[in-house]
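Run log // design_07
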């Protein structure tokens, strides 16, 4: 069975974010505004998404 994926797009700048949020964006693979990546939907990725929820847009893939 294939794992579910989530499509994540960075919609706001990371300027002014603390180091923890910058590290989280980097771990998700996001580097610039408008970039979209797909990650596996699990508890670990959901926790990371929650930490930077004000900077991203999440869509079910």
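design_07 sequence
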């Amino acid at each position: 069975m294939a794992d579910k994926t989530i499509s994540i797009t960075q919609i706001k700048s990371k300027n002014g974010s603390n180091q923890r949020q910058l590290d989280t964006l980097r771990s998700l693979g996001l580097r610039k505004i408008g970039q979209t990546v797909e990650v596996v939907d699990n508890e670990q990725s959901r926790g990371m998404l929650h930490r930077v929820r004000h900077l991203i847009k999440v869509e079910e893939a």
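The mean pLDDT is 95.
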